[in-house]
Amino acid sequence: MVKKETTQLSEYELQRQANIAERDALLKQLALDAATVGLAPKPVARGRPPSNGVSSHKKKTVVKRVKEEVVPRRTSSRLAGLTADSEVAKRKAEDDYVAVQEAERAKRQRVSGNLDLSDIVVSGKGWNKSENFLVDVVSRGAKPYERTFGDTEIRETSDKELRALREKMSGLELYDGWEPNRIKIVPERIYSLGFHPTQEKPLIFAGDKLGNLGIFDASQTSAPSRSPSPIKPEEADIDSYLDSNVPAPAITSFHLHTRTISSFQFSPNNASHLYTSSYDSSLRLLDLSASTSTEIYGPDDPSADEALSGVEIDPVSPHVLYFSRLDGFLGRTDTRSPKPPDLFQLSEKKIGGFSLHPQYPHFLATASLDRYMRVWDLRKIAGKGDDRLPAMVGEHLSPLSVSHAAFNSVGQVATASYDDTIKIHSFEGMGAWKPGISLSDEQMEPKVIRHNNQTGRWVTM
């Protein structure tokens, strides 16, 4: 056997290997230091592949999210001219922490007073009161709570013109002006959505999670702004194709609230007036003609957290507004009076939705997290102080929470519940009911319709 000769390493190679060893030692020390303070990455567990060739699917454990506390960004004391671990550095760190907390609190606190729409435009074309797509909005609009028609009514219609019109309306198709992902009305998740009552053009309003109100004119067309690209969309990137050939829809959005816009209602007397309720504890009036947003209601303490979940306008007295809160209270305020609103605690938990009878608004239906749908009579209010409550006509308990309750003009209340049902409560002759009437459990029993409410798109009416 021939013995291998040992190669003599050069001075350069010896220095290079020494540098490598020093670097490896430094990396190991850094890893140990990170593990000591809890910053080391967690090892990834790699399971063995199944021996029978069939992949095994294990249910993932749901990790509960923990809300991270906002802390100030770390800065260098040396660059700031401060001695490390000195009293001055500690005071500066405490001041920075307090400043960050105050900034986060200010973001969530409601804005009181009047707002000009030109100052709160979030996106879209700059707002001009005299040159905007809302100038032809008129006071007349659609009539709510009227019965619609179906196939049976169409077959039984004897008037040829009316029958042709109903058949035409039944043949209407979904809006195809733009793809849905191109119509981004608001920056964040939509919590409230509705049509403007005007008949001149289809205007869609939407409120999002961060207090933005978006307005979209659905009468727009998406005609190509230039000659179509010779490359077919399926052969090219679809987003690039749309950006280069189809103009974006004109959308305007305003930052009316600092938190979620939970609900909004148009005034029946003035179509340019829109009332909005928000989780920032405020109720505001948006005047599209005057381009202003005025606070109608808000707690005396600006930092109070009394989130509003809904708003309704009295159809008989439009200057009277009702609103619900997440802590189970119902409020009633008169926009003509400076007096504080009347507050009634109708539930121990969140009121998700409520509705007034369109003909007899002294009757009120509430849906709450405690699984109850209740009907109230506002003509008879008894008690003193916090115990002052309207008379409860009746209640119905569902297996799971009830998300909303809606009246129609014939005295029916429709509710959507998390037990995958839609319930219809029928009450006849409500106009002749005496104040303080009480219904039995049998009279409160609804007709139950099975419906999948767990699709991620819950039903609200």
Structure explained in plain terms:
It is a single chain. The chain is of the alpha+beta class and 461 residues long. It contains five helices and 22 strands. Strands 1-10-9-8-7 form a five-stranded antiparallel sheet, with no helix packed on it. A five-stranded antiparallel sheet has the order 2-6-5-4-3, with no helix packed on it. The protein is extended and about 110 Å long. Mean pLDDT is 79; it is low at 1-5, 47-60 and 136-145.
SSE order, one letter for each helix or strand: HHEEHHEEEHEEEEEEEEEEEEEEEEE
What percentage of the residues does DSSP assign to strands (E)?
25-35%
Approximate helicity band: 10-25%
- Count of beta strands: 22
Please outline the major beta sheet. 5 strands, antiparallel
